[in-house]
Amino acid sequence: MEFKLILKKLNNTLTKAEGEQFEAWISESETHRSYFEKVQNSYQDTSSVVDIRKGWERINSKIKSPKGVSTYWKYAAAAVIILLLTLPFVIPTETPVDTTAPQVVEESITIGTDKATLTLEDGTKVALEKGKAYTTQALTSNGQQLVYAANKDANGQIKQNTLTIPRGGQFYLVLADGTKVWLNSDTELKYPVDFGPDSPRKVELVYGEAYFEVSPSIQNNGTHFLVATQGQEVDVLGTEFNIKAFREDTFIETTLVNGKVAIKDGNSINNLSPGLQSKINKTTREIRIAATDVSNVISWKDGLFSFKNMPLEEIMKVLSRWYDVDVKIMDGAKGKITFNGVFNRNQELKNILSIIENTNEAKFKTQGKTIMVE
Amino acid sequence: MDSNSVIQEIRNQNQFVYKKFFEDTYPELVHYANSYLFDQNWSEDIVQEVFIHLWEKANELEIKSSLKGYLYSMVRNRCLNFLKSLKITDDAKVLDMQSMLSSDYDLEFFSSDDLKVIHHQLLKVVEGLPSKMQQIVKMRFIENYKYVEIAEELGVSVNTVKTQLKRAKLKIGEQMAMLIALLMTQ
Question: Where residue B175 falls among pLDDT bands split at 50, 70, 90?
Fold first, then answer.
């Protein structure tokens, strides 16, 4: 298989025939897959250090030493090795030449991480982030995810908790019934600590984006799972789906990956089957259902940005939430230009911007935490 | 010490010269191998093998141009053979072009047929660069001008040429996947 098919795969531009060829190649051996992953990763990370000393030691142990090596040579070698030990060797990777004038120290733009604020039933707020463990009777968190314990004999009043993900954050949550929820940046979810034995399991996506893998009804006394979002209600029997309803969004978008859900809004009820997406206009409440590229919609949960024919202004909104930056579109026409591309979320914002800049369709200027599109 | 005396000394099994030469060239060769293999460990292994080969077979090597060029071409051949074992080919010369751009060394061992394909790819890729940068890249990599010659021709300083080339390489290198994909879909 030609190497360029790997590049085309990385950019989602394989034709059908090429795609089949690629799949055949990658599934042929683990080494093939691993090479593909190495190529993929290398486009995200270019820095590398070569250890000359280690390299030399390996060679030296393999080559035949010349006869009659003098003691002098051994001492000399030891001296050189000591010298080498004290010097860091770095591959001379080219550093960009900075032609701009020196700038004042600015707030730096950072890559999003796992973080959230948990609001308990009594209003107590707990900051969850990497390295900070938090445990109570009902829940356990290692700072990167939050798991509620199943408690079958829950009685009386059901306590509500709220998980708020800031801009630049993401989080993973397991509810008491075993339902898994991935939460994107700038998102808030309200849910009961426990679910009663007979009543529907009801949660509220207050705003933002969440991906649900719902624990099936049969494992929960046949109870339905309901997600309320800004007037819309999704009725679930056990399935996987994504809801996107950021505060600045015009639509509530519900995309079904697996199973079956009913979308209730006011008096209207619409069933979705897998691969379909419903879009409800938040003001007019008009609903539209159409097929969509599911993997594109849910790529965020796997740590990717996937932009398919997406206008630049939409792309910038997505980026602004993850990198917690403000975006100003100076030239409205530029905002309408559409782009295709898949990026790993775990990389610097400037990498992504420079790739977009390289199409010569738009220019970006960064000032502190504000990105201007020109 | 020039390239000829280096190989002569290595033939005489002068380990000092050999080691010095290793220290001078190992990182850049690993870097070069890595532009084919995308794996630091594989790349280091291949370059180490090449150096062992150099030490043990120094008397049998027929080096037409420079020793360094010879090692680069040996590294490339071994990388391509390794890729063959992964059932990867590169008739489109995407990897060659990419490694040519990312290497600081003049790679002089390509056949004229290979060069034709590489230049063709390169021309497509530089289209996205600013025009001056584009011109310098073409003069350097397609017309094979030296830095000084480019500087004279364009009436700029050698430093400007170097800077522009560095930036071009960086730009092309970093965005290679995206650029090539864009070009190939057109």
Answer: low
SS (H, E, C) chain B: CCHHHHHHHHHCCCHHHHHHHHHHHHHHHHHHHHHHHCCHHHHHHHHHHHHHHHHHHCCCCCCCCCHHHHHHHHHHHHHHHHHHHCCCECCCCHHHHHHHHHCCCCCCCCCHHHHHHHHHHHHHHHCCCCHHHHHHHHHHHCCCCCHHHHHHHHCCCHHHHHHHHHHHHHHHHHHHHHHHHHHHHC
Q: Which fold has domain A304-373?
A: Phage tail protein beta-alpha-beta fold (3.55.50)
Domain with CATH 3.55.50.30 in chain A: 304-373
- pLDDT, tens digit (0-9, with 9 covering 90-100), for B102-122: 666 666 677 777 777 777 777
Test the B interface: residue of A52, A62, A63, A361 with most B CBs within 10 Å: A63
Q: Interface pTM (ipTM) of the complex?
A: 0.72
pLDDT over 50 at B184, yes or no: no
Nearest to A358 among B83, B95, B178 (CB): B178
Higher pLDDT, A239 or A252: A252
CATH 2.60.120.1440 residue window(s) in chain A: 115-298
The pLDDT of residue B1: 63
Contacts of B13 in chain A (CB under 8 A): 66
Cα of B6 to nearest chain A Cα, Å: 17
Q: How far apart are CA A332 and CA A132, in angstroms?
A: 43
Our CA-based measurement puts residue A311 at a distance from the nearest CA of chain B, in whole angstroms, of 17
CB-based contact A10 B177, cutoff 8 Å: yes
In this predicted model, what pLDDT tens digit does every residue of B73-109 receive, in sequence order? 899 999 999 999 999 998 877 788 777 776 666 666 7
**Whether residue A98 has pLDDT greater than 60:** no
Asked whether the beta carbons of residue B40 and residue A56 sit closer than 8 angstroms, the reply is: no
Domains for chain B: give ranges and CATH numbers. 3-85 (1.10.1740.10), 94-185 (1.10.10.10)
Q: How confident is the model at residue B159 (pLDDT cuts 50, 70, 90)?
A: confident
Which SS3 state, helix, strand or coil, does residue A344 take?
Answer: strand
Class of CATH domain A115-298: mainly beta
pLDDT at A318 exceeding the cut of 90 = yes
**Under an 8 A CB cutoff, do B177 and A31 touch?**
no
